[in-house]
Design goal:
It is a single chain. By secondary structure, this protein is of the alpha+beta class. It folds into two domains: 2-26 and 140-173, no CATH class; 33-133, Immunoglobulin-like, CATH 2.60.40. Helices cover 30% and strands 30% of the residues. The chain has two helices and ten strands; from the N terminus they run H-E-E-E-E-E-E-E-E-E-E-H. A five-stranded mixed beta sheet has the order 4-5-1-9-10, with no helix packed on it. Strands 2, 3, 6, 7 and 8 form a five-stranded antiparallel beta sheet that branches. It is rod-shaped, with a radius of gyration of 25 Å.
């Protein structure tokens, strides 16, 4: 009889526990990002960004350059004044190609991934782009991700096990 009540309780507890958490997706968690800010001091007339392509390269000379594949959250997006990228993972080397409102398409130097959340300053020259990595600290979203992971581990592992042990201990006392 105790086993039946215990099994019923565990079933209700499990349903309750899983109903308070949102549906888990395999696409959750932080992904590497790149943020590009543009400096136009070298231009006489300021321009705006029309479109852009981020090329991914495995070779340091970018002889194997391929545009970053668009899909799901992964992609390279530009506004009139900046660009950013999010990916499941970046290649070690990159180059950007940006079309501007003056009708020119400018290509950058080859640059390396600067970290998980990379930030770059792009100087717009009359005929090309110069990309330089900006120093950055550990992103605040890492702190959030670690805290969420600890909370999930606590709720998903430690608390249910502790409850089961307590209930077994309590039922053995009767």
């Amino acid at each position: 009889m105790h086993t039946s009540k215990f099994a019923s309780f565990l079933l209700l507890f499990s349903v309750g526990l899983f109903s308070i958490f949102p549906v888990l997706r395999t696409d959750t968690g932080p992904k590497p990002t790149m943020e590009f800010t543009f400096n136009q001091e070298m231009l006489v007339t300021p321009v705006t960004i029309v479109s852009g392509i981020l090329y991914e390269c495995q070779q340091s000379d970018c002889s194997d350059a391929q545009p970053l594949t668009e899909g799901g959250p992964q992609g390279f997006r530009c506004t009139a004044e900046s660009c950013d990228a999010l990916a499941y993972g970046f290649a070690p080397y990159h180059r950007i190609e940006i079309e501007f409102s003056d009708g020119k398409t400018r290509q950058s130097n080859i640059f390396e991934t600067a970290g998980f959340d990379s930030r770059y300053q792009v100087t717009v020259n009359p005929d090309d782009l110069s990309v330089n990595a900006l120093p950055g600290a550990l992103a605040p979203r890492w702190t959030t991700a670690v805290l969420l992971l600890c909370l999930c581990a606590l709720c998903g592992g430690v608390l249910p096990i502790a409850l089961i042990v307590f209930l077994i201990w309590r039922s053995s006392k009767k």
